[in-house]
Design goal:
With about 210 residues, the protein is an all-alpha fold. It has two domains: about 80 residues; about 110 residues, Endonuclease III, domain 1 (Orthogonal Bundle). Helices cover about 60% and strands about 0% of the residues. It is built from twelve helices and no strands. Helix 2 crosses helix 3, helix 5 packs across helix 6 and helix 8 packs across helix 9. The chain binds a DNA duplex (13 and 12 nucleotides) through helix 2, helix 3, helix 6, helix 9 and helix 12.
DNA sequence: CACCAGGCAAGTA
DNA sequence: TACTTGCATGGT
């Protein structure tokens, strides 16, 4: 077994043993996950929850109804999530794609070839690598590893990546050295985020009690 | 008061 | 290609 595979597996085992299962993605439906993936861009999940709650209260957590809503109305509802004007625009770009090309049916998305679907998602304005992969993994259950800012910092800190490594390089590191499992990728990414929140805030790890030491 | 959160696109050189 | 900047609320 390659050394990288061993290290990545060991890190996972430590994190899982310390934190336990993370129960991601926290949402009631695939559509709610996709909306959340866009709303949480560079934003705390706590603020996203407020925005999602606003949409649920108005019974607007539905692709067709949400797309009919004027952009400025949508913006005011998602205000707590921050960047509300640009996110309203991004949500609408995604909704247009989802409704027009897939009749707002997550199962039709799920039937697509993963690589092709990833390209289609990336073509939507406002959907970048992490958002696309979050949708693929969590909403559509495709075995794709999600990389985020915490992942980059943690790997760099443990000598598994350079600071300059790009998204695909880090994603490949995981996908080429681990079993391609939806369950594993789901839990691993969530655990890295958990570790980052708890121990690497402000990029100054409190490694005294860090489970990776 | 400062800092930053489960990024991304657009502009510049 | 590689860097910089705008976007914005709410918690610590």
């Amino acid at each position: 077994m390659p050394v990288l595979a061993k290290r990545l597996t060991r890190i996972y085992q430590k994190l899982y043993g310390f934190f336990g299962p993370q129960a991601w993605w926290p949402a009631d439906s695939p559509f709610e996950m996709m909306v959340g993936a866009i709303l949480t861009q560079n934003t705390s999940w706590r603020n996203v929850e407020k925005a999602i709650r606003n949409l649920k209260e108005k019974n607007l957590l539905d692709a067709q109804r949400l797309y009919r809503l004027p952009q400025d109305k949508l913006a005011s509802l998602i205000r707590p999530a921050g960047y509300y004007n640009i996110k309203a625009k991004r949500l609408r770009a995604f909704l247009e794609f989802f409704c027009r090309d897939y009749q707002s049916d997550p199962n039709k998305l799920r039937r697509q070839d993963t690589a092709s679907l990833r390209r289609q998602l990336l073509a939507v304005n406002g959907v970048g690598p992490e958002t696309a992969d979050s949708i693929l993994l969590y909403a559509l259950e495709k075995p794709v590893f999600v990389v985020d800012g915490y992942t980059q910092r943690i790997l760099a800190r443990h000598g598994l990546a350079k600071g300059a490594d790009d998204y695909l390089k880090l994603q490949n590191l995981f996908m080429q050295n681990l079993k391609n499992s939806v369950k594993l990728f789901n839990e691993y990414h969530a655990l890295l985020v958990k570790l980052g929140k708890e121990f690497c805030l402000k990029n100054k790890p409190k490694c005294r009690t860090c489970p990776l030491r």
